[in-house]
Specification:
The protein has four helices and four strands. It has a single domain, classed as Double Stranded RNA Binding Domain, CATH 3.30.160. Helix 3 packs parallel to helix 4. It is flat and about 60 Å long. It is of the alpha+beta class and 158 residues long. One of its GO terms (cellular component) is outer membrane.
């Protein structure tokens, strides 16, 4: 490592320390402070179960929850790949989750996250259904990660 690079890293580290920067996942960080404090309302469908499972992985299992996270999932599919014979062979799954975090019935934080993923349709129905389910589960994981990041980024407001 060159001297100028070392100097730059030392100055950058000193600047972060001076501004009060603390890693979210570090000791005493917001992730640790919120772990086990948020309960996610029970899901109503397969996508809800995937979202809830990932949120609990990221936020911790509720041990002594004092906040409740409620999430409404909206999904749509868009045909994006058309073969010469007119059949569809690729789909986008577009997802949106509106969420609200409450404590004693009062809103603490709320937000909306959006993303998409895709899957390919094959010549067999079973393989296409499995690909669709996998795409929806991947989308729920992505949206749960975005919800978690949003909560952790704004955790000082809690």
């Amino acid at each position: 490592m060159s001297l100028s690079r070392r100097t730059f890293l030392l100055i950058a580290a000193a600047g972060l320390a001076a501004c009060g920067f603390k890693p979210v996942y570090g000791p005493g960080g917001m992730a640790q402070n919120l772990s086990g404090r948020i309960d996610v309302l029970p899901p109503v469908d397969e996508e809800g179960r995937a979202l809830t499972r990932r949120l609990k992985e990221r936020l911790g299992l509720p041990e002594a929850p004092d906040m409740i996270l409620d999430a409404d999932i909206f999904l749509a599919e868009e045909e994006i790949g058309v073969l010469p014979d007119g059949s569809i062979n690729r789909y986008n799954v577009i997802g949106k989750v509106d969420w609200i975090l409450t404590r004693d019935g009062e809103t603490v934080l709320s937000g909306s996250e959006q993303s998409f993923t895709a899957y390919s349709a094959t010549s067999t129905t079973v393989a296409t259904i499995i690909a669709q389910r996998d795409a929806r589960e991947r989308l729920m994981i992505l949206l749960a990660d975005r919800i978690t990041a949003d909560i952790l980024a704004r955790a000082d407001a809690i």
